[in-house]
Amino acid sequence: MAFIVPGVPRGIDRITTDVQRHLRIVFFGTPKFAVPALRLLVTRGWPVAMVVTAPDKPVGRRAVMTHSPVYDAAMELGIPIRTPVNLRDETLAMEFSELRPDVCIVAAYGR
Hints:
Layout: H1 12-22, E1 25-29, H2 35-43, E2 48-52, E3 57-59, E4 64-66, H3 69-77, E5 81-82, H4 90-99, E6 103-107
Parallel strand pairs: 1-2, 1-6, 2-5
Antiparallel strand pairs: 3-4
Helix pairs in contact: 2-3
């Protein structure tokens, strides 16, 4: 599937589909606000190779450790998830260099 944009020449759809198949996308997001963007990418056929989100944090009076909404959505969609404490994490840097993403999409990551 390709995005159809009014006023764009028809052949661009084919080009977009070819490009889409070969991309490696990393999605950065944490809150509920970012979940629709992640779901839209996946339902439109864009290959999200990895999701980076904030680590679990205590929520509520009892401080129950809770995943971020993006973490839950990525689990549901079967996408690999990383939760680094900060972006200078060596393990994340190694995975990033091995993955060699073409595009990083950030939606309310906040780090």
